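Re: the request from the purification team.
They wanted to know what the chain is likely to look like in 3D before they choose a buffer screen. I agreed to run a prediction and write the result into the notebook, where they can find it.
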Amino acid sequence: MSAMPLSAILPLLQLAAVAEAPPVPVVQSAPQVACAAPEAIGDVSLDGVPDDPAQAKAAAPQTYILPETGFAFVIPGTEEDAAADPVLPPCEPVVPMPVRPRDPAIFGFYALPVTSQRIAARWQEGRLLELAENDALAASLSWGLNRPGTNPLELVNSRVNSEFRQTDDVAGDSWASATETLVKGAGDCEDLAILKLALLARAGLAMDDLFLVIVRDTARKIDHAVAAVRYENRLWVLDNRIDRLQPAERVMDYVPLQSFSGPWAWTYGYKGGTSAGRTVRAAYRQAGR
């Protein structure tokens, strides 16, 4: 029997070394669910079989024979390829976390974020602003809001103030949705402010720029509600008592109590030496507190 050449012995020695090597300890870890972005799946179907026949052929097992000894061994294709590059199910789309908009400081007061569900319950995380796409009355009230040179805030404020009756809640203070106010053709200050915000949202203004603000009217000594809208880098007030727009910094008789936008809510505070602080103290003195 002739001696095997070195070129034939070396592969056998390498296989023997692998067989005699001590086993590597396996560290158990918590199972994790992996996934792949849809664009990373490529031409491989979710069952692990390539959709391309050329890829399937390339992944078939390959047989190798040592020419001088006739020793044959097989290198599996599909199994190793799957282990090296497993086919993963597509990931669920990542839903971005909502970001609280810039605090609506108004009338010289500081906006303080709150998370109380009791405070925001009536606001329903902004769902009161939802309007049906095919609502004919909403469409007529929104007509022309996006025309060049048109101020949508001014148009919405004057239309709602002139076309909807202003009423007071008979049985407690309830907030109607924009759709309910459209149907009734009337509403109190909160209802009309909500409708104005809904129409502006329908016209394409960002929800982060639309606020319902509950205020204390220090002149009339009653609570009131207005819509506040951030537009062209300025905060404007839409009031059912006044047809013209008012820049928020020029409104002196309102003390903000709460405001709402989307899923967010704020309350308000002031510094003692500011004009807002003096307004509050004067209002409390007039009320005898």
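For the purification team: The longest strand covers residues 222-231.
Please add any questions underneath this entry.
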